[in-house]
Design goal:
The chain has ten helices and 13 strands. By secondary structure, it is an alpha/beta fold. The mean pLDDT is about 95. The structure holds nicotinamide-adenine-dinucleotide.
């Protein structure tokens, strides 16, 4: 699989983030030379991102370029790169409404266009990029297939639709070999601190009430980070260029049912505090992954209860770092 060759490197944008740091570790373990790019955007504290890359920084075969894809020169960092995993973005649904939208336009739309433009004409093996289940919004039919209409219910989701459209344009006009990944709620160690499980687990280990948005009956397809990493690497190896793939964990559950699982793991009841539902959150996310199964050999191997147990142990270990960074 020519994702990289002996004298070439794999580029991972957003390498200091949750998914990017896991992907870099997996690529290094497979023997690739990995060049990571991140600007340490202030969406969440730098201390957490530094912790994400601490092990990577001392791993042979890894180098980190701290640069902003929207404004810094890219030629040097792209030199000799054969495969790009483009994960850098401004994530999160709620802050994408209102004045925060500028950051989404810049880091999701402009950064992607600039990177694709800089890569046009390069001899690339693959350009795998992060899209999101947010492109679906609320659907009439579940599980959602990739050919369902896109109906985002947040500005964040809209920027992911544009990301996909930009990738398609550069595939059709400049032959950049793009493959899009529609990730469904990723969880596991180092999950972003704004995400539901990270917030639930941090509160659970410090015996505080869990903040649940809305009634808690919204359904989410949670996907364990190792399964996401495997699908992402498989997409570079054998994904159809120009296509998009759903990547879901295969076990959609209501948020309150996920909390019940957590109670079982902890062996004690948890208090829940309901807050106002988020207008940008769909009622349901549920992925039809048959395209990824067929083309990528995708098979999620981590049941929710197992992944949640690993995530819980990681939060218990990191708890002082996490609360210190968020204080
Ligand atoms: P993250 O915030 O942890 O990582 C993203 C990284 O990108 C950050 O470290 C940030 O500093 C960096 N970045 C942002 N703008 C940049 C720029 N202009 N130049 C260089 N670096 C920049 O997010 P994550 O949860 O790891 O998500 C990774 C990708 O997957 C994102 O594209 C996100 O939209 C997508 N995604 C994530 C999920 C999920 O559940 N985590 C679900 C669907 C899609």
């Amino acid at each position: 699989m020519p994702v990289s060759s002996p004298r070439s490197a794999v580029l991972v944008t957003g390498c200091a983030g949750f998914l990017g740091s896991h992907l870099c570790e997996a690529l290094l373990a497979r023997g690739h030379v990995v060049r990571g790019v991140d600007c340490f955007a202030d969406y969440y504290p730098r201390a957490l991102k530094e912790a994400n890359v601490a092990k990577l920084r001392s791993t042979a075969g890894f180098e980190l370029a701290e640069l902003d894809l929207t404004r810094d020169p890219l030629e040097e960092v792209l030199d000799g790169v054969r495969t790009v995993f483009h994960l850098a973005a401004q994530p999160g649904v709620r802050p994408s409404f209102g004045s925060g939208f500028d950051a989404y336009l810049r880091d999701n739309v402009h950064a992607t266009e600039r990177l694709l433009g800089a890569l046009a004409g390069h001899s690339l093996w693959a350009f795998v990029y992060a899209s999101s289940s947010s492109v679906y919004g609320d659907q009439d039919v579940y599980p959602a297939r990739e050919d369902a209409p896109v109906r985002p219910v947040s500005p964040y989701g809209a920027t992911k639709v544009i990301t996909e459209q930009l990738a398609g344009a550069f595939w059709r006009s400049r032959e950049v070999p793009v493959v899009g990944m529609r990730y469904f709620t990723i969880y596991g160690p180092r999950q972003r601190p704004d995400m539901a499980f990270a917030r639930f687990l941090e509160r659970a280990v410090s015996s505080r009430p869990l903040p649940v948005l809305g009634d808690g009956h919204q359904v989410r397809e949670f996907t364990y980070v190792d399964d996401v990493v495997a699908a992402t690497i498989a997409a570079a190896e054998r994904g159809e260029r120009g296509a998009v793939y759903n990547v879901g964990g295969g076990e959609p559950v209501a948020v309150l049912d996920a909390i019940a699982m957590l109670e079982e793991l902890l062996g004690r009841p948890l208090k829940v505090e309901h807050a106002q539902a988020n207008p940008g959150d769909p009622r349901r996310t549920e992925a039809d992954v048959s395209r990824a199964v067929r083309d990528l050999g995708y098979r999620p191997t981590t049941p929710l209860v197992k992944g949640l147990a690993v995530h819980l142990r990681a939060v218990e270990r990191q708890h002082p770092v996490l609360t210190g960074a968020l204080a």
